[in-house]
Design the sequence.
């Protein structure tokens, strides 16, 4: 047992002290933060650059409609011909010119309004201008129909379906998407970790082979111990890296935002939210009821179960895949030879992610979701995407959860057994380019 | 002398290829044992079985009176043919790690490493990375790591391949020193002449079968056929050759010498005595050379393969 600890320690230290590991660990959060800072900076610059749009209104309707706002400021031209207006817009370097032709019917006039720009205009500005014109036309029509705006507001029928489950609890829109997003995040994390650190395990095995130290080591320890120690040591290094990334990225982001003078609140409200949506949110926060429901819904996500199963699925999935990686590393002499074996390993992982995003989000308890969350090579990822609904009740049935774990453990035992056989023979084979047939033969060696 | 290691009817197959076929060996305690044979004969497979890296399909190996078991790795020091070190690890750290894997405590390993590093004059390499060392330097460290835990049984697979002559002599002397202190040594090599003078027991392995084993002296005695290489300075070379050919089996010999004497290989018949031959030769001219031909292990090997 103490030998296993020794091996884990060495593998961990060898990984953690590696220069590229240190550089990657330190640089990644800095790069992420730099990117966030850049985005924030560019957003600020972008919004500071005001666009000027000229308005030539020959009709009586829109003269006060174009008021300087966030997206653009407006300049009113009066009593000049269109060609002259275009010339001056061009020479002044304005963003564009809105030409409202003369007429006495607002409908007709609005239809003939033209927006002259050098390039195709940005969607923001276009939306804003269209909104202003639409608003004016609507107001005018209401007036001509003799309807006051109060009446209009009363007419407004904002309908929203109430979603309730069988036990009568109220459900909320968007919560399912949010849950799927959380589950998907966990699943994605598992996939990334397996691909990155599985490859580390593989490289470390190849390194032992090419440096020819392997036979010295396995004359002291059993190959299985070495393989296990390698897998555990590498994953501990990976976890260290993850923790450092998450902590430092969090801290650095916060610090950077403070330094750049962006208040976190301001940044959030910058996100373009349509006025209607804003209204709903305001209403929601106004009515304590709805807000409470959202909070309840969030609290109802079984965080404990989720974290526990994340650790469980993560460990089992990682152990399965990294022992496959270790076996591949043992079978080859150098990294270029690994190509033919990598594809079959990565395929189930990719499949799990795609199935997750396209099928599980849509229908977490459908047959495809169930099938892939039981199949052991995809279950760690797909099951994580189903689990935010909890286990039992409306969530994943208990039998499925237990069955997937049992399948995983059985597969794990089976794969580790096979992998360690390939590993044991492979590490002592030099100069042979292994084929699947050759590896199959190794399995039969005593 | 008791046997440190006894292999009984060991067989091992890899798929359809037979690596070892019913091999039985006895390795006496305190001996230097040569496991000799061409490449691919099965030597390394046999050694890996002793090291419990692979397991025999049938047969058994007894070490120190007990069937092989995991604890035995402590009593064996093994320098494989394919040997190396972690390139990016520091020398001292690496030696400590490998020693601890053999079951030594850290303090013990440190103490003994210091002894060996001083002895081989490599103390200042402790903090160097292996990739900064030359091949010869790395070999010294591999040797230290192999013998550090004072194993009863030392196994060297192709020990002198890749060693420069100075290191080879140094290591050879160290191995002899270890033998004097009670260690049993197995040399496995296809270059039989390189270990011939070191070994007191040998086993010849060819195509997965043991074809011969025993004490080197006994084997050589069995294989010598009373042949002498002689050199005689005489005027009438052809005449002497003819006279000799009437009494003995005579053939041309070629050995290095300063003069232009008659050089012959003379094989005695069962009842002849060497002294008679010598007396006869001295009566014919000045004898410059009179040596009994002792077959080399290489020749014995070829002879045995032919006979089987």
Sequence:
């Amino acid at each position: 047992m103490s030998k296993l600890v020794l091996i884990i320690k060495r593998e961990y230290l060898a990984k953690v002290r590696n220069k590229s590991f240190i550089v990657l660990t330190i640089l990644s959060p800095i790069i992420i933060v730099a990117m966030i800072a850049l985005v924030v900076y560019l957003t600020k610059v972008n919004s500071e650059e005001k666009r000027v749009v000229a308005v030539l209104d020959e009709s009586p309707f829109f003269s006060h409609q174009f008021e300087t706002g966030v997206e653009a400021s407006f300049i009113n031209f009066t009593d000049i011909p269109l060609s002259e207006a275009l010339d001056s817009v061009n020479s002044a370097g304005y963003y564009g010119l809105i030409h409202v032709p003369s007429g006495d019917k607002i409908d007709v006039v609005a239809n003939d309004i033209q927006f002259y720009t050098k390039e195709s205009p940005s969607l923001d500005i276009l939306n804003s201008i269209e909104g202003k014109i639409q608003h004016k036309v609507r107001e005018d029509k209401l007036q001509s129909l003799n309807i006051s705006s109060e009446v209009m507001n009363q007419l407004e029928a904002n309908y929203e379906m109430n979603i309730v489950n069988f036990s009568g609890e109220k459900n909320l829109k968007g919560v399912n998407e949010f849950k799927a997003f959380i589950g998907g995040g966990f699943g994605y994390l598992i996939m990334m970790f397996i691909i990155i650190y599985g490859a580390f395990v593989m490289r470390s095995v190849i390194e032992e082979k090419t440096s020819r130290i392997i036979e010295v080591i396995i004359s002291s320890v059993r190959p299985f111990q070495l393989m296990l120690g390698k897998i555990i040591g590498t994953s501990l290094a990976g976890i260290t890296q993850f923790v450092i990334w998450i902590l430092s990225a969090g801290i650095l982001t916060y610090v950077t935002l403070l330094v750049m003078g962006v208040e976190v609140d301001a940044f959030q409200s910058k996100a373009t939210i349509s006025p209607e949506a804003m209204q709903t949110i305001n209403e929601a926060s106004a009515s304590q009821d709805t807000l409470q429901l959202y909070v309840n819904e969030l609290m109802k996500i079984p965080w404990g179960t989720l974290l526990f199963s994340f650790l469980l699925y993560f460990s089992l999935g990682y152990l399965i895949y990294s022992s496959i990686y270790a076996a591949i590393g043992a079978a080859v002499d150098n990294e270029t030879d690994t190509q033919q074996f990598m594809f079959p390993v990565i395929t189930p992982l990719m499949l799990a992610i795609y199935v997750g995003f396209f099928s599980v989000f849509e229908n977490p308890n459908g047959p495809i979701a169930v099938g892939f969350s039981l199949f052991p090579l995809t279950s760690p990822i797909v099951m994580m995407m189903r689990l935010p609904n909890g286990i039992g009740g409306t969530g994943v049935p208990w039998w499925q959860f237990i069955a997937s774990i049992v399948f995983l453990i059985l597969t794990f035992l089976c794969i580790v057994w096979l992998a360690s056989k390939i590993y044991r023979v492979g590490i002592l084979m030099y100069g042979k380019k292994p084929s699947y047939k050759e590896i199959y033969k190794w399995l039969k060696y005593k | 002398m008791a046997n440190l290691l006894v292999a009984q009817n060991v067989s091992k197959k890899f798929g359809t290829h037979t690596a070892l076929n019913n091999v039985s060996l006895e390795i006496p305690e305190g001996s230097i044992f040569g496991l000799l044979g061409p490449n691919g004969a099965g030597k390394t497979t046999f050694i890996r079985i002793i090291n419990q890296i692979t397991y025999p399909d049938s047969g058994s190996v007894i070490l120190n009176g007990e069937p092989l078991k995991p604890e035995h790795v402590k009593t064996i020091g093994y320098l494989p043919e394919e040997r190396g070190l972690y390139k990016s690890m520091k020398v001292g750290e690496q030696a400590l790690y490998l020693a601890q894997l053999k079951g030594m405590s850290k303090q013990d390993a440190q103490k003994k490493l210091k002894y060996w590093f001083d002895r081989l004059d490599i103390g200042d390499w402790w903090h160097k990375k292996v990739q900064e060392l030359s091949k010869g330097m790395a070999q010294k460290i591999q040797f230290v790591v192999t013998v550090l835990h004072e194993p009863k049984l030392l196994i060297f697979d192709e020990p002198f391949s890749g060693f420069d002559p100075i290191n080879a002599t140094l290591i050879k002397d160290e191995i002899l020193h270890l033998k004097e202190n009670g260690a049993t040594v197995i040399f496995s090599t296809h270059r039989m002449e390189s270990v011939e003078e070191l070994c007191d027991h040998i086993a010849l392995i060819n195509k997965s079968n043991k074809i011969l084993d025993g004490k080197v002296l006994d084997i050589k005695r069995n294989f010598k056929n009373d042949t002498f290489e002689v050199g005689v300075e005489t005027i009438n070379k052809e005449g002497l050759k003819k006279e000799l050919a009437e009494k003995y089996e005579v053939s041309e010999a070629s050995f290095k010498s300063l003069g232009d004497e008659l050089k012959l290989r003379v094989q005695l018949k069962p009842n002849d005595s060497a002294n008679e031959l010598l007396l006869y030769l001295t009566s014919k001219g000045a004898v410059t050379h009179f040596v009994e031909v002792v077959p080399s292990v290489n020749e014995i090997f070829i002879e045995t393969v032919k006979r089987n």
Chain A has two domains: 49-147, 174-239+282-442. Residues 264-273 of chain A have pLDDT under 50 and may be disordered.
